[in-house]
Amino acid sequence: MYNRLIITISGFIVSISMILYAVAPDGINSSNIYNDLSVFVIDFDVKLYNDGETSKEKQILNYFDPLIVLSDNLNKKGRIKVKLPDGSEGWVEEKYTSLIPKDWDKKQFNEEYFCYIQSDQKMNLINKEKVNEWIRYEYENGIYGIEYIKNLKLGYYFIKNQNEKEIIIGIKTGGNKKLNWSKEFNFKNYIIYYMITTFDPDNYITESFDIIKKNESEANITYSFCISYSPSLPLKNKLIQRKMLFSSLQSLK
Length: 253
Description:
By secondary structure, the protein is mainly beta. It has 2 domains: 2-30 and 100-251, 3-Layer(aba) Sandwich (Protein Transport Mog1p, Chain A), CATH 3.40.1000.10; 39-96, Roll (SH3 type barrels), CATH 2.30.30.40. It has 2 helices and 17 strands. A 7-stranded antiparallel beta sheet has the order 9-10-11-17-16-15-14, sandwiched between helices. A 4-stranded antiparallel beta sheet has the order 1-4-5-6, with no helix packed on it. Strands 2-3 form a two-stranded antiparallel sheet. The longest helix has 13 residues, at 2-14.
């Protein structure tokens, strides 16, 4: 995972003069402000059901739709009860949300940031190093992996000033728009940039959160959480990877 990320970053540096804005495809929540208590929908076209048992659909949920969990107890169909921002209630399959199962383990990257990992996935903190002001930590076991990087000044995003945000090249134009887009939003005391891209020699998919503390917006310091996986990864495993990535947002204060 680390080598793949370095290859991607190298491409950014070579193409730093090329700037583009990646528009999210249909099916992405367009809000840029979220409730601190929200969990997120983490896939496209997720069904919200009228109740916990029947297959009667109430509506379709979009990627990044915020949900308030009313009950995190999974029923026999793997659903949880949730409330939408408009106050309506329904049931959704927990696997399509960023809710972290109760039996997952909390894993610290450092004193400030952490993530959650399945308890049956034995992972150790590895490859800790500092190169050119990059401080990197990685949890990886050959099946799943997640990285934390501090002060990645040549990362996916950079701030020129408080009013102008630009995305460094890293998203292919054309192709599958569901695999090459970005989203900016506010969460707690942070500005967060999510990006999904296949900008990789082997077309691996990389998803990341580049996070800027609002009180550091002029300091050009970013905190990044990244996952990378094969396009052939089964949906079940991809959703687990995303849960790991989204769980890092819980460490934001």
